[in-house]
Amino acid sequence: MACCSAAVLAGALVGEPLPARAQETLYPQVERGRYVLVTGNCQGCHTEPGDEPFAGGRGLETPFGTIYTPNITFEPETGLGRWSRDDFWRAMHEGMAPDGSRLYPAFPYPHFARMPRDEVDALYDYLSTLPPVKKKKPDNELPWPLSWRVSLAGWQWMFFRPEPFQPDPRKSDQWNRGAYLVEGPGHCAGCHTEKNLAGADKEDRHLMGGQLENWAAPDIRGGANGGLAHWSEDDIVEFLKTGRNARTAAFSIMSEVIELSTQHMVDEDLRAIAVYLKDMEGEERAAPPAPDRAVMEAGAAIYFDNCSACHVSDGSGVPRFFAPLAGSGKVNNEDATTVIRVILEGARAVPTKAHPTPLTMPAFHWKLTDAQIAAVATYVRSSWGNHGGPVSASDVADLRKRLAEGLGPQG
Amino acid sequence: MAALLGSAPVIVPSALSKTLSGSIPWIAGTSPAPRGFGGQRFFTAAERRCVDALVARLIPADELGPGAREAGVVDFIDDQLAGPFGRGERWYMMGPFADGLETQGYQSEQPPAGLYRAALAELDAHCRAHFQDRLFADLSEAEQDAILGRIEGEDLEFAGVSASAFFALLQETTIEGFFCDPVHGGNRDMIGWRLVGFPGARYDYRDYLNHNGAAISIEPVGLSGRAAWNVD
Amino acid sequence: MTRKLPPVDVVLVGFGWTGAILAQELTQDGLQVLAIERGAWRDTPSHFPTTVAQDELRWYWRKEMFQSTARETLTFRNSRGETALPMRRWGSFLPGEGVGGGGVHWNGQTWRFLPSDFVAASHNAGRYGPLGPEMTVQDYGVTYDELEPHYDRFEKLCGIGGRAGNLNGEIRAGGNPFEGPRSAEYPNPPMHMTFAQHRFEAATGELGLKPFPGPSANMSQPYVNPLGCQLAPCTYCGFCEKYGCGNYSKASAQTTILPVLMRKPNFSVKTHNEVLQVKLDSTGRRATGVIHVDQNGEEYEQPADLVILCAYQLSNTRLMMLSGIGEIYDPATGDGLVGKNYCYQVMSGADVFFDDKYTNEFVGAGALGMCVDDYNGDNFDHSGLGFIGGGYIACWTTHSRPIERQRTPEGTPTWGSAWKKAVAENFLKSTNVGAHGASMAHAGNHLDLDPTYTDVYGRPLMRMTFDFTANDRAMSVFLTERVREIAERMGGREIRLNPREGPYDSMPYQTTHNTGGTIMGTNPSNSVVNRYLQSWDVPNLFVMGAGVFPQNAGYNPTGTVAALAYWSADAIRARYLRNPGPLVQA
């Protein structure tokens, strides 16, 4: 029944009338597009929490200011309703809007540029089947000259090469599929690679960890010295599929990636990602300075009294329930932002199809002082074979200050 | 109709009344922190002195160590009576009122704060009348104990307020103040917990399951910590 | 002015254990289900995380999680000749409020009733002759065998830890040999026993009894239930009953169902909305929906095809009365059924004091205990004893929260230095052996509407008339003697007996196991609901909860309440939805 029109099938899916152009499209093409969308996690950024999916309006905090994502439903006034396939290709591949203006790279077109035309067309066809929503995007909050899109021409000239993905013939098909997904639609480097002053990826720090929105994204290189060196391929697949594995649990931004994207991907693709990441060697790290003994003693007392109920007195946690801290990549990250933040704010493990319970760590911002949080963070980063290094009370104070607005009425 | 709610979380507030659908409204970052000790005062200076004397007889300082007075129980009771508990905010306080049977529990027309006030006045009036114009707090410990014994034994009645209801409330709030988490203002320095060996606000004893009848030594901890949490 | 809302298929009144079970079941058929809960939304991280959960004053003594008696309570008297007065604060029992209901702050002792408990009237009359004329005991109308699969479902939902004593008829060592046959082993192993349980096990063994681990809804290991929900291992923190579990270790609606249910688009819950009335059509034979009110005092009519009462037993009974469904029971005439057969639980026990052994009961959990069932139900010959029923006897180590527990030996004064010394010396070196006795229905124990006192909306409060019966007292004397025999063998220095004496006192906490009032049975002349918990009078109204128990057995009720909810849900799904109408012809 491949000839059956998408109008019927997609109509059955969403229960809404479709733009005329979708009727020209076959169901397999729409389904393909749906999967492309999953691999790119479009929904995450293009949905304002609590509002209609894909209608945009979510503010992305960048070091330069807040950029609001556009509506990508095919609503003609406020969405993509008047875009042609070619318009869409130019945006995805060249970072250029139909009027010729340049797009901010908060939209990760430097990665989407790796995607071939037929994938991008499929995505376009799928988006065209979504219920159109009328929703105007708020204006970006950027200082001049960044608010002036012409300034992006220079950025693109310096940092952007719109080259499709080139498979490495020396590597397996599986490796190449993983590389395509990671470097292309998956745009993992968006978070997991450090940025330069212009906000572009530092190429020599590829996937070695980054920082955004006051989270430290860990090193995800899987070879020797990489952040995932101690993870097996199975660990990676399980993590992306279920949000948990024996070593950690996903929360914050990664939880959204898993919830909307990776848990819906086929196992073969997750395996391919794992194979690719495991093939990337990391960088040897210098041993951190030894923690102060008094700090460690205080940290041990705080840990014993507050943390052991979930993470267990020896840091072993309860795999897939409560993250083990011994050997944890997040705990050992050179950048302690995530550790401090999780103690301050708590963290909610992503609910997935496999694990629907969002097991949640409580916030300690009201209960522990900066020095106490620093002590317990130092303790977990320096115990049970961990080598994350000490955390200072001023690190905690800084982050507390930065988060103060986001902590809610009791913060 | 609600089928259209789809996957987006929908929260329609109407003050506290809400409709929840489509997602699990669990979020990180919120904390129902305890109300804690507010240091509020309900008692007059004279009432405070009387209550301080009373609690010091119920749980005295002695060879076993400090008692209710040293644990700050009067501060705790004062703060509690000045707050929602004292006002009986969560108690059913609609009339009509009747004395009731013992099996029917608290039937005072007064919420706890009012009952305290009325009974303390009666207690001191009784002491003035029978102990040469002295107040309860001025009496010797033996005299104080004798009065408390008579109240407990229902051998001493107050006018307009039940002496036995007061004694029950006094005893209940004294024990609360002696053994509560220090965050509420009582159990100062965890005096109550140390006396009995209660380790406090802990959440994990798995390492001790095989104690098999042997003593376990763990420092008590309160919701706001213990000395060992501090670096210096 | 009442605003009429768009109709739903099913409205659930109250959103605790039974509400969550019914919602989870009925949404599977695509029905649009709305739960209306008068309390707040509540979840583990936002309301009782480990950072605040172990606060004795706040949660128990200031009763932050229980129904507010300022808004509504009940009045109480021991007998009809007395004037009932309001319970101005909770004492003997603690009705829950908010999402998850009492299931948030239960201990987790999760029992099945005995097969003979379901046929208490016919079984006991058959074996011992007619029951006294005042004993209004009757059969449930449903059998253990019919409920067995539903018990099993609930145990798997909750991850109950225990050891089967009767697996498909085969008696197994180490379990309860008196239990009805179970189709499967418990989903989790028993809890990790401590010193006091070891002593109890040895003592009961010496007496020729059959000790076994108490069935526990506190997780003995990490558990993933059939819905995929995760329950973490219990940490034995000693803050179970009266507290929410901050560690996801105690089965509750929050830990076992809500993560899945809340994501369903055809389910929603309204919080801080109180149902005032079940609305009937002009025939009085059909519920058209409910009237509810929000915190601003706005009143709504919520039409529904099916109305299911899922609130606490006392609230369900009262809502039936306030809605004019059925006739209120009158003990003077014996007429009426709503409010009849109110029963409770008859508790007694003995404290055991050791000289040189530490029980360390702060290392505890709500359902950490060893039990014997030799004296429960009709597990022993009652000939010549003058009572029917019984109870289990257990050594639970649930906690040593110090405001609540100061065990002192016989003869200790209640205050002063001697009291202080006794508390200090015995706090860590004592335990308790308790009898958890049945409560048999009696014509004089009942619920009705109070003529004087009203709730915050001006509606009459429920009035409870209750005292322990001759059967209860004889049973309790017998059980307490058995407790004494066990306690004396546990190797302590001395024991202190806490017998159940005098009239029922509504203030000291005993247990929140209130039953009856909307009882189930075999025909409309002996019951409010039929064997599927469907109202005889209004067939599109179902009533959950322990209110349907015709009398209470010697066990904690939650397991049976939940099994009945699943049983009823199955009947609704398999039969009622296809052919709405009475499931049992009168």
From TrEMBL, chain C:
Residues 445-565 form the Glucose-methanol-choline oxidoreductase C-terminal domain. Residues 233-343 form the Glucose-methanol-choline oxidoreductase N-terminal domain. GO terms for molecular function: flavin adenine dinucleotide binding; oxidoreductase activity, acting on CH-OH group of donors. Keywords: FAD, Flavoprotein, Oxidoreductase. PANTHER family: LONG-CHAIN-ALCOHOL OXIDASE. Belongs to the GMC oxidoreductase family. This is GMC family oxidoreductase. It comes from Kumtagia ephedrae. The lineage of its organism: Bacteria, Pseudomonadati, Pseudomonadota, Alphaproteobacteria, Hyphomicrobiales.
